[in-house]
Amino acid sequence: MSQVHIHPSAIVDDGATIGEGTRVWHWVHICGGAKIGKGCSFGQNVFVGNDVLIGDNVKVQNNVSIYDAVTLEDDVFCGPSMVFTNVNNPRSHVNRKNEYRRTVVKKGASIGANATIVCGHTVGEYAFIGAGAVVTRDVPAYALMVGAPAKRIGWMCACGERLSNDIGTHPCPTCGIHYEVGGNHCTPV
What we know:
Elements: E1 5-6, E2 11-12, E3 17-18, E4 23-24, E5 29-30, E6 35-36, E7 41-42, E8 47-48, E9 52-54, E10 59-60, E11 65-66, E12 70-72, E13 77-78, E14 83-84, E15 103-105, E16 110-111, E17 116-117, E18 122-123, E19 128-129, E20 134-135, E21 143-146, E22 151-156, E23 162-163, E24 168-171, E25 178-181, E26 186-188
Parallel strand pairs: 1-4, 2-5, 3-6, 4-7, 5-8, 6-9, 7-10, 8-11, 9-12, 10-13, 12-15, 13-16, 14-17, 15-18, 16-19, 17-20, 19-21
Antiparallel strand pairs: 21-22, 22-23, 24-25, 25-26
């Protein structure tokens, strides 16, 4: 794998850990406490805070800020201009850094453009958050979430195809992996 590529306009503070093959593009700022895995990509104007952990092969599109207390596991996709928060009730005149709520985005999840992930929640593995959705609670693995506030309207395969919403065992129409779909769960079998 190749070395880290950091564009000359990017700022990477001393102490940041960045894995092999990661690409850091125009006007990105990565704070010194950030830990970033291998093979990641950070598009134009991305911010990564100090208390941030990012796995391998994570793709962060333009204009995303990953604030303190956010963890992105391997293979996560963050669409353009999506938003993470870290304080539930911010006020400019009240310092609440000791009240940050942890947000975890599990392996393989995708977050669409302009979506918002309100702090303190977990997005399950391979979940798919639609463009513009506002996540205000934990998201089950493989869930397809849309709207404001986000509601589950279906299930997604690990390969990114929509699955049947009917209760029972169903194959993915594209890759053939079978899933057991229940009332509020979807698991590969």
